[in-house]
Amino acid sequence: MAWFDVLEQGVSGLLGRVHTQIRELQSATSQVFGFLLCDALASSASLAIALYYSWRLTLVLLATLPLSFLVLFLVTRHLEPAIQAQMAQLEMATKFTTASITAIDVVKVFNGLARELHYYRRALGLARRHYLIQARCNSAQVGYIAFWMIFMFVIGFWYGLVLVGDGLAPGHVITTFYSTLAAFQSVEALVPQWLVFSKGMSAGHFLSCLASRPESPKSHTADDQANGAIRLEHCVGDVQFTNVSFAYPSNPSAKVLSKSSFNFPAGQTTFIVGQSGSGKSTIGSLLVKFYRPSTGQILIDGLPLELLDDEWVRENITLIQQTSILFNDTLYNNVALGRRNPNTVTHEHVLEACQSALLQSTISGLPQGLDTQVGSRGLELSGGQKQRVALARARLRDPTVLILDEVTSGLDQVSRSLVMDAIREWRKDKTTVIITHDLSVLDPCRDFPSV
Fold first, then answer.
1. In this structure, are 27 and 159 located in the same domain?
2. Which of 27, 111, 239, 245 is the most exposed place for a label (fewest CB within 10 A)?
3. Does an H or E element contain 208, and which?
4. 287 and 405 in contact (C-beta within 8 Å)?
């Protein structure tokens, strides 16, 4: 998660750039790459023929290479930075587009269309400026290559006459000259495609760096590194935080937790109560290994969390966040995701989980019941209904340790009370951590708050 947090243009910008870079890499490695191989072979064969018939004339013509390479280097030295800058601006434009379309209702409510269009046009304008730099580099490159060919005609015929005067056969001079010229024309034919090839190389470098990004370091012992991460046969559910400090990678100077210690006893329900921004939700993110604490230690059944297998941790510890994400699928499939293997879930299991989350009235009000499509991100459901779907997922999974982060914030007071009673009954004798800022959900006689 830390890697996603520090993306400058966000995930939407990254996805747009990856799509563009893959397309450019495909273009460079298909027809253009074939042209490169053919022209390279033709150039090598032509030079071999030229050297065979007159090595002196060939070397004179090749003597123009160092100067030409220097000129071409100076002409195209801004090409690679312009390509990278253009990709960055297109990534930013994609971010603006995605954000505006995703939150189009907010844009319209606050009359922000003109502002969003301004940002989008500015990003495209900067991308256009960098593309014009590429076009100028490519034009200068093509122009110089044309001048170089004409210059070779002049020097080639002049020195060819000198060699004929020294006794070299005119046919050898013509063969050598045109063979060398053919070698250079093979290179000239590739120049108009060089911009596509340069973009392909830049795209390949970007995708390679993306695919080979270093993973976060793991603090395994030698035995753990040899045998793999630890997977316990049984999870009791005892959770302990000891002097844990943490700051999000996007803002490392602001500590969210500072030397905090908690104990969530196995088989008990514990409430974490605090103001907004006090780091309550961070506790859940640390427990499911979305992030690693800066200092301190988190123990699960007496073992350090970092030594436990990630998959094992998420099989036994489930986090239900305040923002309930639903997929563009049926209500049934969205609830079935709670099971480790959704394909093994029966209709009765899903219906029972929905009933425990008080979704009966919601299901009866849908045109096709559980088989109703909920729309992209669950747009067909209200915020409270989506939170109940998340609770139904959790009920279906029934993990050893369950973390509920403000899961009743979208419910009315009566529904909230009913849901909390159902959670207490369901999670009896199981480790449950409920994060909230609403003291009304606590039962002084039964609940243990941690402030």
1. yes
2. 111
3. helix 194-211
4. no
